[in-house]
């Protein structure tokens, strides 16, 4: 039977029903480094509500991002695990910010207290300014080389080894975890450049992709699947989308346009400059899709919209439509080979509740009916 797992994200840098309105922006930034209005601060009360809503809505995992003004992912996880029962937490970490041995020790404590409900998302890059703020001045290629070593070290520590390590970026002697990890967590990882795909297929367990059109997403997925098979590795695959719903397709697009109705021109310029300076392959590809679809109200395929990409980097392509339409689009991506789907939106709390009520059950229903017809 086809199974799909749903993931969402906590707005740990702030939340709003609009994006790109610099006038009312209190200084918060998204994890991708582009301004988003924060009329809802990432207070402990609000993020706890988001986590509890995600658990109730049928999401298996909550991504806790890194970057900008995000609340620290490990700190957030240590609190949230005590206020939920079954929800898993995917903590995003950057190799340039925390040594692998230190991260592993912190992780093992949170994972122990949460009864193995914490996973790790290793994020290689980010906005250049953010990386520089952390003292990370490595080139793109060297960052991925370091990431490979970082993940190798984490895995050996999580597997309970005591070992020496002599790499280009890390040298360890007698490395081990004083508090063992019962079950080694899967390592989530993403990146669209050739070296990113090499690292992913060498050492990662879950490869994360930002959703695009069905055709372009398939091309990206197929390239990684092929590379993994050549290395006799079997990865899990996740695809990410924003979601905007409406009772009709027209109403859904009205809701989508409302989100960007207060965009400030300076924010658009900043996003463009950030994309150029970032140089990330995936970010640049989404930005190009947005530019090419501008005359078509940013619609790049049926129910797939790039309007948010004007302001957001990273996970910015949205599924827009009725719950039935969005569920059908999700199933199409599941059919490509994705067993995990990350869905989020603005404002996060209401969108998470709406997806749980109206979309997730439909996806499971469509898949179940199809399985019944095959019997």
TrEMBL record:
Pfam families recorded: Bac_luciferase
Region: Disordered, residue numbers: 15-38
The Luciferase-like domain, residue ranges: 35-339
GO biological process: alkanesulfonate catabolic process
Protein name as it appears in the record: Alkanesulfonate monooxygenase
Species of the source: Solibacillus isronensis B3W22
UniProt xrefs under InterPro entries: Luciferase-like_dom, Luciferase-like_sf, SsuD_RutA_monooxygenase
Chain segments annotated as coiled-coil in the UniProt record: none
E.C. designation(s): 1.14.14.5
Biased amino acid composition, Polar residues: 15-32
Keywords: Flavoprotein, FMN, Monooxygenase, Oxidoreductase
GO molecular function: alkanesulfonate monooxygenase activity
